[in-house]
Amino acid sequence: VEVKIEVVIPEKERSKEEMSPNGKASPLIYKVNGTARHYHLEEHPIASNPYHNPKDVVEASVCHVKDLENGQMREVDLGCGKALLIKESGEFHAVGHKCPHYGAPLVKGVLSKGRVRCPWHGACFNIGTGDIEDFPGLDSLPRFQVKIEKEKVYIRASKQALQTQRRTKMMAKCISLSNYNLSSTNVLIIGAGAAGLVCAETLRQEGFSDRIVMCTMDRHLPYDRPKLSKSMDSHPEQIALRPKEFFCTYDIEVLTEMQVAAVDVKSKIAVFKDGFKMEYNKLLIATGNMPKTLSCKGKEMENVFNIRTPEDANRVVKLATSKNVVIVGASFLGMEVAAYLAERAHSVSLVELEHVPFKKFFGERVGRAVMKMFENNRVKFYMQTEVSELREQEGKLKEVVLKSGKVLRADVCVVGVGAVPATGFLKQSGINIDSKGFIVVNKMMQTNIPGVFAAGDAVTFPLALRNNKKVNVPHWQMAHMHGRIAALNMLAHGTEISTVPYLWTAMFGKSIRYAGHGEGFDDVVIQGDLDELKFVAFYTKSDEVVAVASINYDPIVSKVAEVLAAGRTIRKRDVDAMVFLSFRTGDMSWLTGKGS
């Protein structure tokens, strides 16, 4: 038997790909208070189908058909690139071998019920289509057709697809943008983060061809916000989620440096800070959070930062090099910034009110292990205290005074003491806001107002994993999923959210992966070695596992995420009896119910 793989584009998608782009349009202009604002719809030719060129195709023999058992994956090399060959339920499938998000090797991921989950950050891809089904990331995998002929496996694929390892799903365009009133739109998206962008892209992927406008207070197009604290010297263009040409090609308008001041849900009008008004038919609110600031004397001083933009992060790195840095708050942002600056700054001091970092999130034992790693990398902790004053010299920060009486030398101060939902502009709108300022939505991301949806860090929603408890999950992955669900329900699909929260943090070359929702956990079952930073921690509430975290134990977090996504329950006794043996043998079939 022979297995061949070749790239095939369905007729429906091929016809879409070969469609000519919109003709070149004049810049859209409207005037507010005498100021002209321009929105360019630049012509961006779509590349011809790469698979029509025979010279672009490569074919190679990679293995025998019996080399793969059901449920197995294998990376196969075609000379100019690799593919992921999969056998499940007696059928072969082939897709790109790297996760389009950050390039993780999917062969080390988790295969379950027709999809493969990334071992690093939990993105999921359908093995039959390559389509992305859970996040983070925007692109899908290239799919290669599999044919069985003889006893060897051959793969025939496009060199371009093998090299790019990603595929952007076909999208619709605006039918006739020139006919629109510039002060009205069918869909208005407030916020240009992951939730807003995924919402816009999903609408286009589903064939929506009316006007879409995104607005943001930021000066940049949507970018990879987690990198602000993980890769602080990245420039905006390096972390852009999509290039400028993408928005032009698919007629997604982005109004930068535009702040919405109020929403009139009865008239369906958004009022901007500069007085401009825009009517909408459907509205998505995805404004995210705003960082909390210090309340002490000197908080407005120069060289005191809340990292909110790429410019903030870049400036902190520049000012901190070979200088003294004080970070207030052992939050994810605070800890990631401390890790990034440890090798660059002369000294890094971290001030925290709790006695252990991450105690509420990861538990005390894991928190202490992480704290020890930081101390081994020259980060000095000042725990169970707060900042009482920031002192200056010649207008610039010089010292940070703690309530404990300790005085720290400081040339730069980064504040990471949490955030609050950016929903103040909705107070008089009639949209349901809870006591903490979060927008309340249902499983379809709908607010109490018809036609108004909300997504991302600023919402609470029913989490199926925790018996539909209303929760706030400010994770990058979750924002993506919120945006997709909101878009589908704008189109009346009736789709309910069903996903397992997944997050990661990276510090000193170590990645902590986490899946589930551990709020209120009452015990932590740890297997592995905390001192060696090679462990997995299961967070339990009563007898049930509600979350899992690990360092250097991939793909256990993705494996557990798949179990939880399937609606199965993991009991504490399962962890105690089987997990350590599973790690030693490499057999984790018990998690899927196949083991003994």
UniProtKB/TrEMBL annotation:
Transmembrane segments: none
GO CC, one annotated term: mitochondrion
Signal peptide: none
Rieske domain sequence ranges: 60-155
Keywords: 2Fe-2S, Apoptosis, Electron transport, FAD, Flavoprotein, Iron, Iron-sulfur, Metal-binding, Mitochondrion, Oxidoreductase, Transport
GO biological process, alphabetically ordered: execution phase of apoptosis
Subcellular location(s) of the protein: Mitochondrion
Chief place of localization: mitochondrion
Listed name of the protein: Apoptosis-inducing factor 3
Higher taxonomy: Eukaryota, Metazoa, Chordata, Craniata, Vertebrata
